Amino acid sequence: MSKKLLLGSNPKMRKGIAILWLLLLFSGISALFWFNEWKYSLPTPVPVGYHLVKPGDLVDLPAEAGFVNNKPVFLHFFNPDCPCSKFNIPHFKSLVKKYGKEISFVVVAICKDKKYTASDIQEKFGLDIPVLFDSSIANSCGVYSTPQAAIIDVNHKLYYRGNYNRSRYCSDKNSEYAQMAIDSLLSNHTSPVFGIAAVKSYGCSLPGCKRPG
Does residue 37 sit in the same domain as residue 78? Predict the structure, then answer.
């Protein structure tokens, strides 16, 4: 009797094989999920030749990302191909909606290639704010990963640069660093001092950044 006929005549064996395949598939998906969680929970390596820009340092912005009506500028450093950037979009949009009248929001999209246009990103993510593709802005602000926030005050000085939240999904209400920085700026307070979780970069390295050897 052939193996095929043997399996076909044994419902319990067929069920067992099906369950085994499902368990293997589930285990593979789970391993991939946890690997990604672990990968993006690690700090982004500081690139070779990195120049630190501290709060209070002057930031030279191009005219397109400049100041409108004497309002501070919020720069959202974003990579359309970075999973962390995608998870961050709903929270970023909520900040635009809440503070858009008091602060000028700008997306700085840094992609590996030029396949995206400003309108592509605006339409895909439902954003009605300027989108720039100038990587020099990241260097000016000391940014080397996405997603990252940088707030420039009306005196053209860096007020805050760092993470949006300790949680990858921006779900931790106690660590809404970018929003806390906005509230502090609008209340005319000095730059807030957060812990290492706010300022140590996490997420995706910017394309073109050279990792240490």
Answer: no
